[in-house]
TrEMBL record:
It comes from Robertmurraya kyonggiensis. This is Flagellar motor switch protein FliM. It is found in: Bacterial flagellum basal body; Cell membrane. The lineage of its organism: Bacteria, Bacillati, Bacillota, Bacilli, Bacillales. It comes from the Bacteria. Residues 254-324 form the Flagellar motor switch protein FliN-like C-terminal domain. Keywords: Bacterial flagellum, Cell membrane, Cell projection, Chemotaxis, Cilium, Flagellar rotation, Flagellum, Membrane. GO terms for cellular component: bacterial-type flagellum basal body; plasma membrane. Belongs to the FliM family. One of its GO terms (biological process) is positive chemotaxis. Its main location: other.
Amino acid sequence: MSGEVLSQSEIDALLSAISTGEMDADELKKETVEKKVKVYDFKRALRFSKDQIRSLTRIHENFARLLTTFFSAQLRTYVQISVASADQIPYEEFIRSIPKMTILNVYDVPPLDGRILMEVNPNIAYAMMDRMMGGKGSSINKVENLTEIETKIMASTFERSFENLREAWANVVDIDPMLADFEVNPQFLQMVSPNETVVVISLNTTIGETSGMINICIPHVVLEPIIPKLSVHYWMQTDKKDREPLEIAALEKRLKQADIPVAVELGGSEISIQDFLMLDVGDVIELNQLIEQPLTIKVGDVPKFVGQPGKLNKKVAVQVLETLKGGDDDGE
């Protein structure tokens, strides 16, 4: 029965029908307890929870910001990329939803199994290529007649752009994206079975005055090993202390790659300003350092080591003898 409110006349008529036998009260009770049946489509299996979809959305919102910065620097024009939607659909439905001729970039993402697909609307792809070739960013759609040079430029651009996905996924899994295939016809691309569930993240993209969509298709088989990490409980249970060693290791790795100046001090001397002004080519300045004495090696402006001069492969060199220690300038 519906939840609408009956008028007094309708209530009287209902009671009269029950009392005369025209309506059975037991049948009314059966109707109220009848279970509602929800239709489930097995071809459109929902294999991701809403919580996991939200986690994927957050990851790709970060990816969209990284892409915006990357393409802005590469194209030197106005670029805006943002997540429009994230849905789970059968792979076959995704293929039917994209243009018959479009830009398809297929990536391997080891250590995860399977491949990820990035579909770029041809208008967007041509606008990017036009900017990279020195144009204004105008767009034409002749994707079916891509030349070898155009294919190489596009593939190279999207291969470098997908490196940003590594940073976006860093808190979940350390992946190494690599371009595996470049295609323009979706019918020639069969990554998974037609009924396989995929997550499609659609990105609204604006390049100059051209707008379009970039779709990222991730099959369930790729995400299956890391699905527990996409839960909000995983994020809440992750202790900050567990992340600190990773952060420290990453910082140490960056520091080890930093360039620092190293200088060897042969000695020093003090002269008057008058003598300094009178210096000429060929004049000799006596240093306060004997040849037999070890030399001071400075890292930056801080004395760190003691060494001796010499030659290595016919080049002037210095050999480190010991480390200087003491106070704030501890060499450890």
